Amino acid sequence: MTQPGTKLETFPNPASARDYTIRMTIPEFTCLCPRTGQPDFATLTLEYVPDTVCVELKSLKLYIWSFRDRGVFHEAVTNAILQELAAALSPRFMRLSAVFNVRGGIFTTVIVEHRKQGWSAPETVALP
């Protein structure tokens, strides 16, 4: 039986000489409100430019699942996930957007970023 886990596994970046974006949508994120204990639901969007490694998807799924029974504020959990992913992957760039479902008439979106020192984004190309 598969269980939640906190170990993020990686594999070698197959195109480490190139900047490219990996974008993942995680529509079933859940954690608990630290005040009420009620569940909070969010859609996470993870975008990153890998350096030497990429995150292995099953380990990411199990890692995300590990938050299901944790009482944590939206801002804290979004920052913690980004910090742990950035520590495991050392990406050139990473952005995590957490769009939480309505709670008490308020939608909350938290966006956090990590940028590797010395890395700058490539120039955007506008095609006609």
Structural features, described:
It is built from two helices and six strands; from the N terminus they run E-E-E-E-H-H-E-E. The chain starts with 9 loop residues before the first strand and ends in a 13-residue tail after the last strand. It is globular, with a radius of gyration of 16 Å. The protein has a domain at 23-106: 2-Layer Sandwich (GTP Cyclohydrolase I, domain 2), CATH 3.30.1130. A hairpin with a 2-residue loop joins strand 5 (93-103) and strand 6 (106-115). It is α+β, with helices and mostly antiparallel strands. It has helices at 57-65, 74-89, and strands at 10-12, 22-32, 39-49, 53-55, 93-103, 106-115.
Q: Main sheet: which strands, in order across?
A: 2-3-5-6
Assembly state (oligomeric):
single chain
Helical run tally: 2
CATH architecture of the domain at 23-106: 2-Layer Sandwich
* CATH fold-level name of the domain at 23-106: GTP Cyclohydrolase I, domain 2
Order of helices and strands: EEEEHHEE
Mean pLDDT level? 95
Distance between the termini: 52 Å
**Rg result:** 16 Å
Helicity level, as a percent range? 10-25%
What would the principal axes of the Cα set say about the shape? globular
Q: Say which CATH homologous superfamily of the domain at 23-106 is assigned.
A: GTP cyclohydrolase I, C-terminal domain/NADPH-dependent 7-cyano-7-deazaguanine reductase, N-terminal domain
What is the highest CATH level, the class of the domain at 23-106?
Alpha Beta
Q: Which structural class do you get from the secondary structure elements?
A: alpha+beta
What's the total count of β strands? Answer: 6
Q: Main β-sheet, in a few words?
A: 4 strands, antiparallel
Runs in which pLDDT lies below 50 for 5 or more consecutive residues are none
Percent of sequence in beta strands = 35-45%
